[in-house]
Every structure is written in structure tokens, then in C-alpha cells.
Design brief:
The chain has 232 residues and is an alpha/beta fold. It contains 8 helices and 7 strands. Helix 1 crosses helix 4. The termini are far apart.
Length: 232
């Protein structure tokens, strides 16, 4: 069984790298918008029944857990704040207990992702034991596909892309780096926000309607801060 895992921090603890630009409430609002966009994409990907069998969520955020309960999405409730790596590590053990044989972890930070990108990525499990999608700067990890789910340890943050490839190599795992555009566009800085909007505006086909909540929010904020250098 192939599953996609969505780890979600409590919104009030999200997007700290934007603290110099956005208020705590604005950062929480942005995190919720990104979650709503990614949630819709992942549910669509599973609904297509093209090789992705289940959506799993790990979170302590009440809004997220309520959404899971509403539609019957399996979730692992966390007791409080946790690092992304620790959340994925705990959820990996849980997923294995559910019978998952391939696990794709994606963040809420890349709301430009599409259902087609997710399905294409999940399909790589047939040829590779480890698939790493790097962050926009090439050093971190935005998405990680592992077959089996404990093929390597999950690491996130600066330098994690190299850690994943090195561990896969040392364990004799067949691995590859994939770069689907929507999963490379993480939003952590004002520059990321501009790059994200540029990607959305240049998209065609499926991409024209993606990330609607995040796009509307960022466009509104950028317009209101048009005279602030950080948004130029």
C-alpha cells in the first residue's frame, strides 16, 4: 500500500522565518491557507485511484484534526510541538503498523504542488527505494518517498538532501533526486513568496487553479506592503 503523509505543525508555531515581516496571526493564517490548498491536492490525488492508496496526517493542530475527522482521514495526534523530522519519524512507525509499504512525505510549505505531480512522484516507488525532492535552495528536503517506509531515516532542514542521499548510498538503496516544480516552491521568505506567485502565474492546464487560498492571501499582502522593501 502506498500512502502520502502530511505532517502539520500547529499553525501558531509555523513560518517563523517570516517573523520579521508577518505578525503571529498572519503567519498562522498563511499556514492554514497552505494546509487547505495542499489538503485539497492530496485528497484529489488519492481519489483518482492511480496508485496512491491513502492520505495520512500527523499533527497537533485542532483545525487539521477536525478536518480529518470530518472526512475519515487517518491521523496520528501529537501531544504538542515537534520538529518536522520527529513528526515524520513517529508517523513512519505508525504507517508501517497500518500496512503501508511505500510512504511519501510532503509538507504544507509547497502549496503549488499538483495531484499529477504527487502521483508521478509516488509512481517512482516502483523503480527506486528512495526519492528525494530538494528544497528550492537545493540543500534541504521538501518531499521524501521511501520504499519500504523505513528504508532510511527522515531528515529535514538545511543539509538534509545530502544526508538522505548519503544514507541511501551507504545502505545500498536505489535512490534518485526528483524536481517537480510545484514541490520545489517552498514558502519561507519574502523572496520565496514572489517566486511562488511567479510559478502560479506562469502555470497552464492543471496549475491554473492550484493553491487558490495561498495565492489570494499572498497577493493581498504583497499589494498592501507594496512600499515595504522586503516585498520588492
Amino acid at each position: 500500500m502506498t500512502a502520502v503523509l502530511l505532517p502539520v505543525k500547529e499553525f501558531r508555531h509555523s513560518k517563523h522565518r517570516l517573523a520579521g515581516l508577518l505578525s503571529p496571526q498572519e503567519r498562522a493564517t498563511l499556514a492554514r491557507a497552505m494546509f487547505d490548498d495542499v489538503w485539497e491536492v492530496l485528497r484529489e490525488a488519492v481519489a483518482r485511484k492511480q496508485g496512491l492508496d491513502q492520505l495520512l496526517v500527523v499533527s497537533a493542530e485542532p483545525y487539521v484534526l477536525d478536518r480529518c475527522r470530518e472526512v475519515g482521514v487517518a491521523f496520528l495526534e501529537e501531544a504538542g510541538p515537534s520538529t518536522h523530522s520527529d513528526s515524520v519519524r513517529r508517523a513512519t512507525e505508525w504507517a508501517i503498523g497500518l500496512g503501508v509499504t511505500s510512504l511519501l512525505s510532503v509538507p504544507i510549505d509547497t502549496p503549488a504542488m499538483t495531484a499529477s505531480e504527487i502521483l508521478t512522484l509516488a509512481g517512482l516507488a516502483r523503480r527506486h527505494s528512495v526519492v528525494v525532492v530538494p528544497s528550492a535552495d537545493g540543500t534541504g528536503t521538501n518531499a521524501l518517498l521511501r520504499t519500504p517506509p523505513d528504508a532510511i531515516e527522515p531528515h529535514f532542514g538545511p543539509g538534509s538532501c545530502r544526508l538522505h542521499s548519503e544514507e541511501a548510498e551507504s545502505k545500498g538503496r536505489d535512490w534518485v533526486v526528483a524536481q517537480p516544480p510545484g514541490l520545489l516552491a517552498d514558502i519561507d521568505t519574502p523572496e520565496d513568496a514572489e517566486a511562488f506567485l511567479s510559478l502560479i502565474e506562469s502555470s497552464v492546464g492543471e496549475g491554473t487553479n492550484r493553491a487558490s487560498w495561498t495565492t489570494a492571501l499572498l497577493r493581498e499582502w504583497i499589494r498592501s506592503r507594496d512600499k515595504v522593501p522586503a516585498w520588492r
